[in-house]
Every structure is written in C-alpha cells, then in structure tokens.
Amino acid sequence: MFQSFDSPIDPTVGPARCAALRQELARRGLDGFIVPRADAHQGEYVPPSDARLQWLTGFAGSAGVAVVLDEDAAIFVDGRYTIQVREQVDTDVFKPMHLVETPVSKWLRETLKPGMRVGFDPMLHTVNGAGRLKAACTEAGAELVALGDNPLDAVWEDRPKPPTGQVAIHPRALAGEAAGDKIARIAGEVTGAKADAVILTQPDSIAWLFNIRGSDVQHTPLPLSFALVPGSGRARIFIDARKLSGSTRDHLGEFADIEEPDVLLPALTALGGEGAVVLLDPDWTAVALAEAVTDAGGRVVHGPDPVILPKAIKNATEISGARAAHLRDGVAFCRFLAWFDQAIQEDKLDEITVAEQLEAFRMKTGRLRDISFDTISAAGPNAAIPHYRVDRQSNRVLPADSLFLIDSGGQYDDGTTDITRTIAVGSVSDEPRRHFTLVLKGHIAIATARFPIGTSGAQLDALARIALWRSGLDFDHGTGHGVGSYLSVHEGPQRISKAGHVALEAGMIVSNEPGYYRDGSHGIRIENLELVTAAEHIEGGERAMFGFEALTLAPIDRRCLMPEMLTHEETAWLDTYHARVLARIGPHLSGEDLAWLEAATRPVRG
Predict the structure, then answer these.
(1) Spatial separation of the C-alpha atoms in residues 153 and 35, rounded to whole Å
(2) d(Cα 31, Cα 35) in Å, to the nearest integer?
(3) Topology annotation, domain 313-592
(4) 406, CA 20 to 30 Å: which among 30, 50, 126, 243?
(5) Is the pTM here over 0.90, yes or no?
(6) CA pair distance 523, 475, nearest whole angstrom
(7) Does 11-155 carry CATH code 3.40.50.880?
(8) Looking at the predicted structure, is the pLDDT value of residue 8 above 80?
(9) CA contacts within 13 A on the Cβ side of 102
(10) Residue range 231-249, pLDDT digits in tens
(11) Distance CA 412, CA 435 (A)
(12) Angle of CA points 416, 422, 427, to nearest 5°
C-alpha cells in the first residue's frame, strides 16, 4: 500500500511543544516566532524532516502558518481546512484563524506591541511573503528578526533526517524534449530578462527541466534540489549526491555541474560579489537566497519562474501520455466502481477498505508508480471535510441511504491522474440529490465552456458556481488546479479559481471539480481532468475559441441525480460523455464489469 492509515496527529502534544518553543524564544530574547507550513523550496509537498507546523500544532493540511507569541498563539488556514484544523489542533493553545479573512500580516499588525521582536527563518519565507511580514511588524512598532538557525529545530528532539530518495531519469520518449534543449530555452528567457542567471527553487521545475524524477516526498516524484541556469554556460544543480546513481549522474553531467545543496548560498554570494544580476521568482524564492546575492553586491530582478509556463503547456508526447494514463486509470477505476456496487450490497464497507481496494485495482495495471495523493475516502459527514484523510481513528462504515465521496489519483510514468466521484449508497434522499445536481450543472458549465485567447481561470470560475449561487450555496475551494506530467497533482500557474489570473493556453491540463459541503451531513464533488484544446473558429463566429477535452473516463452516478433539474443541453452532455466512456473503456472490460459499465452509462432518460 502506498497509503498509510496510521494517524500521526495528536492534538494533545500542542501545549508541551508550544511551551518548549516559547522557552527557547525567551532564551534567544525573542517575543515570538512564525512557523509556516513550508520548506526551503516553498512548495506544497514537504518531507517529514520539514513538517514543522504539523509537529508543533498537529495540523496536517497542505497550507497554513502558526504564530507563537509570549501569551498568544494562532494558526491560520484557508477555507478547505476550517473544520479539519479544529479536529487536529488544541484550540485552547492555538486559536484558529481564516487565512483569507484575517491574513497573518493583519493579525500581526493588530496583535503585536511596540518593541516586540518576532523571529522568522528566512529560508522558509519567500521574498514577497517576508516583505509583507516585515511591513506588518514595522507598522505595529515591532521588529521582524531574520534568524541564522530555526529555534523550533532546537526543541524538536526526534526530528527525522532529510530524505535521500533516489533520482531516476525521465526518458525523452516520455518527456518529449531533451533536457539540453529545455535548458537552452530557459537560458534564452534569462537573457531576455537582462539577467545573468536564474535561481530555480521548485523541485518540480527542476525535475521537468533536467528530465529527472525523484522520491523525496510522499506521492509526488520530486527530487528536492536547487538549480542555477545562466544565460550562457553550463547549468548547476545542487542536490545530495547520495540520491544519484552512476547513470543519473552521467545524465545530469551532460548539461550541468552537480554540487551539494550547502554550496548554494556560497555560490549565490560569489555571483553577488561578481556584480551579477540574478532572476528570481519572489513568490517562490526564499528571502535568504535573494539576500545572499544582494548582500554581496549583486542585484536581483523579479519575475516568474521561467520554467513554470513551459512545464504547464504539455507537448504532444506529454499529451499522448496523459491520454494513455487516463485510459489505463479509467479502466481500473471502472472495475473498482463495479466491485463497489456489488460489495456494498453484500456487506458493510468502511472508508479504509474502499481506499485499499481502489489502490489494489490501480496496482493491477502493472504501471502504477504511486498514488498521486492520499485517497479521500469519505462517508457521510466526513465528506463535508473537503480534504478529509481517513485514518484508523476516523474510519467510518458507509451508512445506508447516503452519499460516499472518493477523490483519488495515480502516478504513472506517462501521466498523473486525479478523479473524484460521489456515489450513491442505497437510496439517496431528495436534498443531497438536489445538491448533487447543482454541482453537476457547474461541472458541465466548465466542461462545455468555449473561451477566447487570454481568458483566465478567474473568468471561468463563476460558471461552476452559478447554479449553486442561485440556491444560496457555494464552496470554499477553487474549481480547478493544474496537473503535471508524472509530477505534481497540483501544478501552476493555471487554475480555475477566483485568484486564477493566468491565461489558459492549449496544452494545459486543469481539474474541473466544483463541490458542495453540508457540515455534519454530506459532501459532494465531481472531478474530471480537462485538457485545454487548441483555439478553433466556431461556425458563424468571429474569434477562435479554446475548449476542454475531458481526459478522465468514468461514469458519473446517475442515481444521485434529479434529472428534471437538468436542461436538455446538460442532459445531452452527460449522455454524450457516458457514451464516450463506454466506447473507450468498454473494450478493456468483460463479463460483470462490462455489464456494470453498460448499465452505468445508459442515457439519463433512456
């Protein structure tokens, strides 16, 4: 099993660990310390050795930050985790705050007193993030103090060692472009920005650029590393040599110098001393790295990581791989759904059993490298927690006459998948069926959208919500995120959300996953991955329009529907989608599995 169901969460550890941190801060003459859910790479995925926020508070979500002062402590999370944080954290010690409604900077301005000294680890905060914190502290009359070492690490006695996962070559047959050619493209971007080199800190950017994959974090093939790409000359990759076999070292050595991670700061200092101009992304680069350049006399220029956009726009080989991965994954998922419908009639199922069975079906493909995230297997009220993670304590038997939500994905060497289905367990009452249909209407609105060049995800996001809004309902997460090519299941810069301001382009992959969550009752989400298709002219139209191709191939449970709520066009879309699922998946099934699929994909009113 790639997924563990043992819970590392224990809210009772919060008081003692917070007290130990406060004692260490007092020893250092500090009045507070900021603990982000981040490592030096600033990405979503952190190894156990860098899970400081979880160790301190018990919170296991993918985004958040805590501030510990002498007498106050708060933990900040977004709308996905407002329920989860109260279950995982001792709220008598850490007061939960909504990260959007009350940002950390606002809380600091309102809470700090003049003369207070608040510490932070400059390797764990981005240039822009540190700037906001400094401004807030200054406005409150306090001082933000950059620390040379992390005081939390001083009291974390059993801290795990940094990972040394092995690095593998991602062959050109799957990547579609040689690493040397990619590096040459990025070098041109560096020159165009009038810089001498760019700092790359995101491991997925480095993995894509150098055609390598790693195993340093759970479920995502990332090699934790840094890189410098000059406008001219050889690239440099800073990576623990223990991760490299002879073949991977030879592969990297063709186009880059290989150095240890602790050489990065001296290398940036040396560039600064030469008066170099270094390009960096202020939203992703640790402030310590930027200051290593400027303190030595160099200059930094701000700009987006130049790898992010080329990585997001999949080439023909990556698109072909994505389609193959989704077909393979769809066959496994449909076999799972057929098993589920039979098993739920014969016996009671629980969340862990269902998650284990789904992973087993994916394993039978013979191509599964990992799951792409911990499966969200959520029954009844657990499904009302958008990022619920089942463990042996929370494991729930699927109640009769209810909805069951399962959000899962696979990592294959040719593509990354992510699918959510909400499934009927027995007879579902009218209110959940109405909510399901409203969510499906939003899903269809995105799937059928046609949009001109320059359209961003923010402009599409409302389409997924209008049906819910008309009923006075909404959901507190984005409608869609980008997805990598055997990389991160959450990839930028594109997304469909209120904050998704990057224009969508042909070749991008984005999820389409509106939802609705009734606290204490049920949760609904319907998710397909969509490929942005090339802009085409519509008959009688004047402008070429992009569209979406659904990569995900699995039935949407018609038993959860109120068909009378769908328009003729919406019904036609669902029938057409199901016909396509049957045509693509059916030839790979037989017997009872095929019979199940034929029944599950019948027309809504057929």
Answers:
(1) 11
(2) 14
(3) Creatine Amidinohydrolase (3.90.230)
(4) 50
(5) yes
(6) 10
(7) no
(8) no
(9) 17
(10) 999 999 999 999 999 999 9
(11) 33
(12) 155
Q: How far is CA 303 from CA 123, 154, 189, 279, 285, in A?
A: 19, 35, 10, 7, 11
Q: At what angle do helices 568-585 and 316-346 cross, to 10 degrees?
A: 100
Kindly tell me the sign of the dihedral angle through the C-alpha atoms of 201, 202, 205, 207: positive
Q: Residue 287: which H helix or E strand, with range? A: helix 287-294
Lookup: tokens for 484 = 């990598």
Helix (H, G, I), strand (E, B) or coil at 35: strand
Question: Is residue 443 within 8 Å of 466, Cβ to Cβ?
Answer: no
Say how far apart CA 442 and CA 444 lie, in whole Å: 5
Backbone angles phi, psi at 2, to 5 degrees: -80, -20
Phi, then psi, of 591 in degrees rounded to 5? 60, -135
**Helices and strands in the chain: count of H runs, count of E runs:** 20, 28
Per the CB < 8 A criterion, the answer to whether 375 and 407 are in contact is yes
Peptide bond into 162 cis (omega under 30): no
Q: pLDDT, tens digit, for every residue of 177-204?
A: 999 999 999 999 999 999 999 999 999 9
* Alpha carbon distance 144, 65 (integer Å): 16
Going by CATH, does the domain composed of 168-311 fall within 3.10.129.10? no
- Give the whole-angstrom CA distance, residue 243 versus residue 224: 10
Task: Identify residue 471 by its one-letter amino acid code.
Answer: S
Secondary structure string (H, E, C) spanning 471-482? CCCCCCCCCEEE
**Per the structure block, which two tokens stand in for 222?**
């990332």
Question: Which residues, at least 6 apart from 220, have a Cβ–Cβ distance to it below 8 Å?
Answer: 45, 204, 370, 372, 411, 487, 488, 489
Length of the chain: 606
Side-chain half-sphere of 469: how many Cα atoms within 13 Å? 7
Equal CATH topology for 168-311 and 313-592: no
Residue whose token pair is 């410098």 = 228
Where are the domains positioned within the chain? 11-155, 168-311, 313-592
The span from the CA of 471 to the CA of 466, in Å, is 9
| C-alpha to C-alpha distance for 239 and 258, rounded to whole angstroms | 7
